[in-house]
Amino acid sequence: MDQVTIEAAIGQALAEEMARDARVLTFGEGVALKRRDLAERFGAERVRNTPLSEAIIAGTAAGAAATGLRPVIDMLYIPFLTLAMDAIANSAGKLRYISGGQFSFPLVVMAQTGAGWGVGAQHTHNLEAWFAHTPGLKVVMPSNAADAKGLLKAAIRDENPVLFFTDMTLGFNPGEVAEGEAALVPIGKAALRRAGCDVTLVSYSKAVHTCLAAAEQLAAQGVEAEVLDLRTVKPLDEAAILRSVKKTGRLIVVHEGARFCGVGAEIAALVSEQAHAALKAPVRRITPPDVPVPASYALEQAFLPQAQAVVDAVLAICPPHAHPRGQAVFEPA
Amino acid sequence: MLADIRDGDAVRMLERMLLVRGYEQLIVALGKGGNFPITCSALGQEASAVGVMSALGEADRILTNHRSAGHLMARGAEPGRLLAEVMGKATGYCGGKSGSLHISVKELGVLLTSTIVGGELSLATGVALSKKMLKEPGVVACFFGDGAACEGVFHESLNLASAWALPVLYVCENNQWQAFVSRREAMRNEHVSDWAAGYRVPGRTVDGNDVFAVREATQEAVRYIRETGRPYLLETCTYRLAGHYSLDDQAYVDAQELADWRARDPILRLREQVLAMGPLDEAGLEALDARVAAQLDEARRFALESPYPDVAALTADVLA
Q1: Strands B232-237, B168-174: pairing kind
Q2: Which of A107, A178, A249, A321 is most buried (most C-beta within 10 Å)?
């Protein structure tokens, strides 16, 4: 299989879906330049530059989706979506329901998220919980190239509005991707990135890599962490979370979005409601402090959840050397 | 101009305007009994709704705003199903999930009633993009008010429709009121149509209380859109004779201004024109009134007797 960056994987997904379905088009500020190959292959009708007007980009996508097209809009950076919230939240997310099911809104809203590039709070913000909180929307946040391609293909085929957020700093991470139908990744299914029996680490997007790094360090100390990559924030793969927590008895959720009313709060509540008896320790959340993202590299790194914080949190609830190295019990998920 | 209009058209348009007016009055009457949803009426704007709609065809698509009852009925919606929707009944056009503020009727090409002021302008470009790319005939008519014209998305919409050459008929029904604020206080332009020129879009203002003038202007606009594929902004100058919403007593409205506009009531004018043109005499008009009243009685009976939706509908249709 090819090794490509997440950014290239997104380009492949768009190309394959545009070739498969003539109703798929993409537009946004500078899209025809950013995706020059697509513009040349599919023409100016289907790969369009727009004015720098977020509200009308999103509204146009909603109107087009309701009447037979399948738009994919590139909104660049997630804070810009605050200018497009009416079309996304009030129209794309609600109009199917309030019309009594008369219309569908098969559209994809792409935007970059995640701290680490020093571009400051008006270009960096994790707003996934906003959209997860809004009925009628799906929220996808891949952590690697294969998922970026496969989930974007699935998002384009979905009959509903899908928010597709990719982490800015992961954009150039290479990974293996498949071609065509084999590349598809279903929306709403978490992936087990590492099996373990002592603690469950749940995360998505860039924080998955933080958790994997923490799990490596923990393994050296005899603690086996299971790492679950949600891939889709909404609909949430509740079964995968509950299955893992029932196995390990401990849960730590790690994400870059705000802690208050964040995705971690939802997962903690889910486990409290449905797997309380399995818990050997309180659920912990590792998130940034409740501040906008600073531009300074030093402050930005202090903002981001770090692997050491995950290690410390695990060791606080999970006795080290519980399972001497090599004797851990693995169960298939 | 009157000579060009066939007598039957005038009578049909008058009947439609009477039906719209009667429906809005029926809602006010039902509201007085309590336990009835608050609604926003377009009382006095009937000529604009009926005039524009009479110049549109089946292939055209419609987006409108919270004062949509006239647009929906002028498009052919049944008053009974509209009233049922307002009352939250299962037989309403949206199964009771819309209420009065978000009604859409796919079978009539009505995509959206937006209660977010300007929301309709946001989606209109997308609907027109579908028409263009899927090579479907017809134009997209988007009804909004002078209040929505002050929203940023109005300007974004006109700019994009012009840049991409999209077949949108922007219909600004300038009813002089932006909720409780006079448009004179909220904008310096006398006419919203003046803004169109900045986007290289043709703009025209007509007397919105003259149904024939509105129809003729719409025909011209649609002809332009069909020939060029480009957008057009038509402003119908009219007046909201009732308050912002059903409980609003209009205490803030200048009495003389209101009286002046009441004297220009589009229905009174059309009645006089019909009498002058001759298709109906006084007795004929009375018979027309009776026919409309009977239709509304039937609508009222249908809506009141209709069942509420099953609670299972609560969680249906969130996702496709």
Answers
A1: parallel
A2: A107
Distance CA B314, CA A200 (A): 35
Q: Please state the φ and ψ torsions of residue A90, each to the nearest 5 degrees.
A: -85, -30
Is residue B1 very low, low, confident or very high in pLDDT (cuts 50, 70, 90)?
Answer: very low
C-alpha–C-alpha distance, residues A303 and A312, integer Å: 16
d(CA A66, CA A94): 12
- Catalytic residue, chosen from A17, A123, A209, A256, is A123
Q: Mean pLDDT score of chain A, rounded to an integer?
A: 95
Tell me the H-state helices in B76-165. Answer: 79-86, 119-133, 146-149, 152-163
Residue A328 is given by DSSP the state P
The structure tokens 């790194």 sit at: A301
In this prediction the ipTM stands at 0.94
C-alpha to C-alpha distance for A5 and A146, rounded to whole angstroms: 9
Which chain A residues are within 8 Å of B119, Cβ to Cβ?
59, 86-87, 90-91
Measured at the CA of A208, the angle between CA A202 and CA A209, to 5 degrees, comes to: 145
| Among the listed residues A295, A273, A226, the one whose alpha carbon sits nearest the alpha carbon of residue A254 | A226
Look at A51 and B163 and tell me if their CB atoms are within 8 Å.
Answer: yes
pTM confidence score: 0.94
